[in-house]
Every structure is written in C-alpha cells, then in structure tokens.
Amino acid sequence: MAKSFQRYTLHVQLLHIEPPIWRRITVEGPDTLRKLHHILQAAFGWEDAHLHDFLIDGKTYAQLDIDAGLELMDLAKTLDDRKTKLNKVLRPDSHIIYQYDFGDGWYHRIVVENMETIEDEAWGESRVLDGARACPPEDVGGPRGYEVFLSAVRDNPHSEAATHYRQWVGPGFDSERFDIRAANAALMRLATNRWGNR
Predict the structure, then answer these.
(1) What are φ and ψ of residue 164, in 5° steps?
(2) Which domains does the chain have, with CATH numbers?
(3) Cα(17)–Cα(76) distance, rounded to whole angstroms?
(4) Per the record's keyword annotation, is Iron included, yes or no (predicted)?
(5) At what angle do helices 142-155 and 160-169 cross, to 10 degrees?
(6) Which residues, 6+ apart, have CB-to-CB distance to 185 below 8 Å?
(7) What pLDDT digit, counting tens, does each position of 48-95 carry?
(8) Full-prediction pTM beyond 0.85?
(9) How far, in Å, are 28, 42, 53, 125 from residue 23 at the CA level?
(10) Closest Cα to residue 173, out of 133, 132, 130?
(11) Averaged over 187-196, what is the pLDDT?
(12) Which of 112, 116, 98 is closest to 10 using CA atoms?
C-alpha cells in the first residue's frame, strides 16, 4: 500500500520577459529541490548547461556537489539542494525564486497554486499541465539579450543579425509556440534516465 504524500501545483514564470513565458507543473513532496531543478529544465526547454540556485524565504539552496561556481556562493549560508525535500520548503505563502545561468541571469518566480494530500497512489510522476511561449535560447544574454534577439528576428528579418540568429537557433524556433507534448516527453525521459520510475 502506498503512503500518502503532498502533490503541489506550481505556476512558474520567467521574470523580466513580456509577454510572459510560464509553465504550470505538478511536483510531489518527497522530491528534492535538485529534482525540481531538473523538472524545470525539462518543462521550460532549458539544456541544463549552467549553474542554478533557489532562493526560498530568504534561504539559498544550490548545487554544492561540483566545484564550478562555488566561488560565487556564500557557502556558510547556502544549503544543498539534493538534501532538501519539497515538502519541507513549499507552502502557499512561500516566496520562491529559481535562478538558472548566473551569467545570463534567468529568474523564475515559483508560486504554489495548490497543495493536496494524495492517498493510496504511487508517487514519482511530475507533469506539465499548461504553459505559454517558447523558452529563450541558451546563452542569448538574459532577458535583455533575448529582447535584442526577438527584435532582430521579428522587426528586421533580413538583417545580418537576424540571419545570424536564425542560423544559431535553427529554422524551427518560434518564440510564441509552447509544445506541451515535448515538455512532458522530456520529463518522461528524465524519469526514465535520471531518477528512474518509482
């Protein structure tokens, strides 16, 4: 018989971008902040090529199991995201910021929309329920760089800059398109490859 656990519905919005880029996802209380990082990477379409951290109610949680980037952190005040379960930090009134790529500075605001206790059901599945717009390309230069990118591609599509950007991101990039099936397929691959099906 499965134990009861908390299931959370989170609304996650990329800050400093208009119109908004956001995802609504479900996660489960026994999961760790590190797993939430991987879920967010898959849900948004990031490539997990950079460091990350979470700021939750004034505390910082980060990836402390690698040497790269540790000099950017106050290690005396930073907690390990692998050792922190979501049910210990997620509450409806929590203030949560997820930062990805310290150079580009992608900040995501996480809001707990719903918490429910699940009985007699196996845990381990996260899903993307909804969302809007495509994830910006990696290394585009943060919100300001993405604005420049979009301006070149949309407003001056025959310019040298627009041609360069299209070659860089490929012909299929559509800033207004969010593919929920692809996001959930990425989550399924992660579940199979990274943390296993439970």
Answers:
(1) -60, -50
(2) 5-135+177-195 (3.10.290.30), 137-174 (no CATH)
(3) 33
(4) no
(5) 110
(6) none
(7) 999 999 999 889 999 876 655 555 555 667 888 989 999 999 998 888
(8) yes
(9) 16, 11, 18, 16
(10) 133
(11) 75
(12) 112
Lookup: tokens for 113: 């929309």
Hey, what are 36's tokens? Answer: 């939430």
Q: In this structure, what token pair is assigned to residue 198?
A: 């439970």
pLDDT score of 146: 96
